[in-house]
Request: fold
Amino acid sequence: MPIPPKLTAEQRSAALAKSTAARQVRAATKARVKVGELTLSAVFDLAKSDEAIAKMRVVELLESFSGVGKVRAIATLDRLQISQARRIQGLGTAQRQNLLREFPDRIGATQRGKLLVLSGPGGVGKSTVAKALRATDSFWVSVSATTRLARHNEVDGSDYYFYSDAEFDNAIKTALFLEWAEFAGNRYGTPRKPVEDALRDGKNVLLEIEIAGAKQVKASAPEAILVFLQPPSWEELVSRLEGRGTDSPERRAARLTLAQEELAQAGLFDISLVNERVEEVVDRLIGLTNNS
Reply:
């Protein structure tokens, strides 16, 4: 039997990163099952397009349901003659049907809300759009946590949750964030539980977050719709950024460089909207929940 070639350090690093990402996706999926956000059939659907979920062991999935636990999960598999080592991708049609009969509609009758993620370069008007959307009562708009200092007109719990560095570190360690990222020297994160509660209650949810955070959300919640907010023109964006009188010349230059890098990320998003008029953007976002 030939000896397989040794992996290079770069290959080992890539394999480790892929394995870590897969574990995070499976952990996030089980957490959503546990709080009643995902049904068994919904997980089966996600497994069709997500390799990490497809490779999840069925027993781990079943024991994630509230009130089930490991003992009942194993007993169910034994009764249905399904191996405890079986993964979702290895289930046959009859086995899937039998499992769905065992775990029917565990979420309840309320249809799960849709998750929209709004992102784009600094100065494009994301906060203005989110504020206008909140006023329509069509969305539950998440409030982010941040380590930056509050501005004079900002209210804790309304504009942001203002955390100390220690509080933010603790929230990361205890997996309280759906996503988090560092931006312009400060950290921002989305508290997980309020989002999951709102979606489970059938509310459409908007996350107004940075681009790195949007990618994290898509990785853990593939059904999320990523929306990139574009400026009417580069000149308009420059005008908005340079109009912030609190920034030093060096800070403004750094913001412009970052904005160019952020605009290049638009192709990674599901939809791009140009912020010509806030009212038009709001109407389009509301329309996405009806058409998607």
